[in-house]
Amino acid sequence: KDVITARLNMAVITIDGKKLEVPDNKNVLECALDAGIYIPHLCHHKDLNPLGSCRMCIVEVNGQDGVMASCTLEAKDGMVITTKSQKLDQLRRLALELLLAGHPEDCSTCPKYGNCELQMLIQYIGPKTGRLKMRTKGFSENEKNPLIIHDMNRCVLCGRCVRACNELRGVKVLHYQKKEMETYVGTLHDRLLKDSDCRFCQACVEVCPTGTIRDKLINTDETKEDAVVPCRHACPAHTDIPRYIRYVRSGNYDAGTFPADMYLEG
Ligand code: FES
User: Fold this and answer.
1) Using CA atoms, how far apart are residues 74 and 79, in angstroms rounded to an integer?
2) I need a labelling partner for 153 at 20 to 30 A (CA). Which of 79, 210, 215, 225 fits?
3) Cα(96) to centroid of ligand 1, in Å?
4) C-alpha angle with apex 21: 17 to 23, nearest 5 degrees?
5) Residue 46 CA neighbour count, 13 Å, CB half
6) Rounded Cα gap, residues 49 and 46, in angstroms
7) From ligand 1's centre to the CA of 107, what distance in Å?
8) CB neighbourhood size of 159 (10 A)
């Protein structure tokens, strides 16, 4: 009976002529990737709810008009899917060109060079940005937060960081914001992350596919603790100030008077 029940929850679909048995309702993009069939994608991330906004993952489905985003398309028994065609190439190229219209042209100045999902897509899809009117967003890079750098000029609004902050971590610090004609990702009233209840879990850094939200400590000797507790890191006497204050607050003045004790007593 268990085998029959298990089978009932499975669907047989065909992607590019390859028959696959997949869990019913699993999204087609993940079915393809799991089977080693590459479909370009950008806003999709396996740990986040699908958004279907970038249009990189479009596919054609037999019997359906137009194209569909495979990251939001649920596998149904009997589906026949095509991931490569001239039409799909053209539409993906156009979608990527529109994304790139507001993105800095020169990848080589980006700290994420060689490790950027957008750069890989550019190489795979081969957009021609020359025919578009390029624009500069005009944001300044924000390095005022500990641990995290925000460079909204490089953002393509894939929404991964917003979903990671809101849905995955439930912190709800990052939102879509508007400045004149530009949409960007930021905090309410543009507060610093440290003033917005950010936990600095860095999930937004993990999921960002471009050089927009970056780890500030990469290539430095500073640790996360140093950055988040600067009063300890920067103290010239190397006193553990947070612990010192805890001792004083609890009335343990002797321990608080002698910094050496603080380290010994843990
Ligand atoms: Fe599917 Fe972006 S990856 S629409």
Assistant:
1) 10
2) 225
3) 11
4) 130
5) 5
6) 8
7) 22
8) 21
Q: Where are the beta strands (DSSP E) in 50-171?
A: 58-61, 68-69, 80-82, 148-150
pLDDT digits (tens, 9 = 90+) for 120-138: 999 999 988 777 777 888 8
Burial of 233-251, coded b for 16+ CB within 10 Å and e otherwise, reads eeeeeeebbebbeebeeee
Report the separation in Å between the CA atom of 77 and the middle of ligand 1, taken as the mean of its atom positions.
Answer: 22
- Which pLDDT tens digit goes with each residue over 58-98? 999 999 999 999 999 999 999 999 999 999 999 999 999 99
Q: Taking all residues of the chain, what is their mean pLDDT, rounded to a whole number?
A: 87
Taking each helix axis from N to C end, the angle separating 117-125 and 86-100, rounded to the nearest 10 degrees, works out to 140
224: alpha, beta or left? (left if phi > 0; alpha if psi -120 to 50): alpha
Residue 56 Cβ inside 6 Å of ligand 1? The answer reads yes
Phi and psi angles of residue 183, each rounded to the nearest 5 degrees, phi first: -95, 140
For residue 54, which atom of ligand 1 is closest to its CA? 2
- Residues facing residue 20 across a β-bridge: 13
The secondary structure element, H or E, covering residue 183 is strand 182-186
Q: Which of 2-16, 161-175, 206-220 has the lowest mean pLDDT?
A: 2-16
What is the CA(28)–ligand 1 centre distance, in A?
Answer: 11
Sheet of 10-15: strand order equals 18-23, 10-15, 80-82, 58-61, 68-69
